[in-house]
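EI: anyone free to look at a 257-residue chain?
SC: sure, send it
EI:
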Amino acid sequence: MIKLKTLEDIKKIKEANQIIARLYEDIIPKYMKAGISTWELDQICEDYIRSQGATPGTKGYDIGWPTPPYPAATCISVNEKIVHGIPSKTEILKEGDIVSLDTVTVLDGYYGDAAKTFAIGNIDERTKKLLEVTERARSIGIEQAVAGNTIGDIGSAIQLYVERNGFSVVREFTGHGVGFKMHEDPYVPNYGKPGKGELIENGLVIAIEPMVNMGTFKIKMLKDGWSVVTQDKKKSAHFEHSVAIVDGKPLVLSEKE
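SC: here you go
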């Protein structure tokens, strides 16, 4: 069931999201260099989140047996990993890698959720285009998040733009409602048909998050029960914003002010 938010709720959700915005803009970029481990990046993220009076929503998140609870403060997915990569002391970043961070914060009981893909040093032109298209696809999806449209309008616009640029969108993982919990109704796929799905209305808060692959959209789950990779081992990018519908228009909550 979709739970619409009041303006006061949206204000609180925005405060949780602004922690992620500052993390991505002010803190993490100076550490995104070859030679650092994904475990070290996770420690930096957790320290910053806690310093802001919040807690990392992914740490200890339990989807049930047999998958163990997620062990880290943020999901860090490198190259062909699409989402939910588990940070590791042995996973060392190198020149040319791309690294997707997907972070959830909990502040005063409200949830923020945003993701961004970073480049490590110089990346090839095809990978640059992958990042540019994925980030632009997120903006195109957000533009469709207006009162009177449907969830299908968001997914259709994202899919059309991505596929016209020669990439593919992941099917099995989608955006979602957010705010009172990490994952709420409705699901927000990055594909679909215009006019289909739930109606967008004031008070709706959703995470719009294109996950775009360089090759096939087909995926594979690794044995750790969390990490999701592309079947063809080609790179994947991920950009996400939490968005509220206010006065009929999309208000991006996770963009730094």
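EI: Residues 152 and 196 are 5 Å apart (CA to CA).
SC: 👍
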